[in-house]
Design brief:
Elements (H helix, E strand, L loop, with lengths): L1 E5 L3 H12 L5 E5 L28 H6 L2 E4 L4 E5 L4 E4 L4 E3 L2 E4 L3 E3 L10 E2 L4 H13 L2 E5 L3 H12 L3 E6 L6 H4 L1 H13 L3 E4 L3 E7 L2 E6 L4 E4 L1 E4 L3 E3 L2 H5 L4 E2 L1 E4 L10 E3 L4 E5 L2 E4 L3 H15 L11 E6 L2 E7 L8 E5 L4 E8 L2 E8 L2 H10 L8 H5 L5 H4 L3
Helix pairs in contact: 1-8
Length: about 400
């Protein structure tokens, strides 16, 4: 029996590891179009840019010890669901008994923003190329104040660079966090000397004698030694779509991770999964790990839905932003702590239950909510705001 995993990230390796832990003794083949063995992506915008190494998801010895065959620098080009084969770029056809698609996402690219000194960040190769140019750069411009843009800006500041961010929304991360919390992130970066230009975007990028010249929609001209474009990501659905598998904003899967094709599964950043009745696609490390464990359980005979709450984190200098659960209304959050001081938690509350929390500098609150999401509890907005009342006790009633 052979299980083929397509993808070079933690989702694929988590699936392989869980399969072996659960006693699967058939053949496992992991196919990745990257030359690096599967690695952790969160450090690419932080530690790797600061000079650290790419962090492997598993040691080289682990693949040998667990009889997981790697096919690196090899692209899966087609899937035949009737013949149960995966066509590889080198011409090989891999037969499968089960196929797991963990094809991830790619950086969204902007027309006219390519060439020397213009960078996108998704892969280890991207991070190494950006790191090499950062060493000699003085003026760094970041397009987009999402997670990647903000983390790269923080890394560049740590290297002593002059950083400008252009963000068309009113604040960084406004679509994810809302304007009020986004303002706290804005203040953090401006306090470190970053020139954050909200409500403004770059329309053109032109080479000059000394680097690049960028012109914004407001008529501003900024010179840069390099530009990082961080304007989101696109799910890599093409392999599935061309095979006739249902896709949209991601590969459609049920709560167990199954696609519309027999014995084909999908997980990680590319999977648009039914989660508590909603179809969601989550681009976070923890979700990829947990989906890998769920899919492996189902491949080895269980009927286990993926119901774990979504949790993510993002580092901005010494500040750690975290969220867990489902924040339903970014304009109607219950605040505990001080947004102005940059130490707070913002709770989503529905009918006396906490659905989720966004927290800056209060990891204990995130842990308390993560536990409470699985337990019965009842709490009011006034009680959540009152810091004299211990949160752990409030959420265990």
């Amino acid at each position: 029996m052979r299980y083929v995993l397509v993808g070079g990230g933690v989702a694929a390796t988590a699936t392989a590891a869980a399969l072996r832990r659960r006693g699967f003794d058939g053949e496992i083949v992991l196919v990745s179009d990257e030359p690096d063995a599967p690695y952790e992506r969160p450090p690419l915008s932080k530690d790797v840019l600061a000079g650290g190494d790419v962090v492997p998801a598993r040691t080289p010895e682990w693949y040998a010890d667990n009889d997981v065959r790697l096919r690196l620098s090899t692209r899966a080009t087609a899937v035949d669901t009737a013949a149960r084969t995966v066509r590889l770029g080198d011409g090989d056809d891999l037969r499968y008994d089960a196929l797991v698609l963990a094809t991830g996402v790619r950086a969204r690219r902007l027309t006219g923003f390519e060439g020397d000194r213009v960078h996108y960040l998704r892969t280890a190769a991207d991070a190494r190329a950006l790191r090499a140019e950062l060493a000699a750069a003085e003026r760094v411009v970041v397009l987009g104040a999402g997670f990647v843009g903000c983390e790269v800006a923080a890394s560049a500041v740590g290297l002593g660079k002059q950083v400008t961010i252009f963000e068309p929304e009113p604040t960084p991360l406004a679509r994810v966090l809302g304007v009020k919390i986004g303002t706290a992130v804005l203040d953090i970066h401006r306090a470190r000397g970053v020139d954050v230009r909200t409500g403004e975007y770059v329309e053109s990028c032109t080479p000059s004698a000394h680097g690049l010249v960028l012109e914004s929609n407001l008529g501003d001209r900024v010179e840069a030694d390099l530009v990082l474009v961080g304007v989101g990501a696109l799910p890599n659905v093409e392999l599935a779509a061309e095979a006739g598998i249902a896709t949209g904003n991601g590969i459609h899967v049920d709560e167990y991770g199954r696609t519309s094709a027999p014995d084909v599964w999908a997980l990680g950043d590319v999977a648009a999964q039914l989660h508590h009745g909603r179809r969601v696609r989550v681009e976070h490390h923890d979700n990829a790990l947990r989906q890998g464990q769920t899919v492996a359980a189902n491949l080895t005979g269980e009927q286990k839905p993926h119901t774990d709450p979504h949790w993510f984190w993002s580092d901005h200098y010494e500040h750690k932003l975290q969220s867990v659960g489902h924040v339903r209304d970014l304009d109607d959050l219950v605040l505990r702590g001080s947004v102005e001081e940059g130490v707070f938690s913002a709770f989503s509350l529905t009918d006396g239950r906490v659905d989720g929390v966004i927290s800056l500098g209060r990891p204990g609150d995130v842990l308390a909510v993560r536990r409470a999401l699985h337990l019965p509890h009842r709490v009011t907005a006034d009680e959540l705001r009152d810091e004299s009342l211990p949160l752990k006790q409030l959420l265990s009633r």
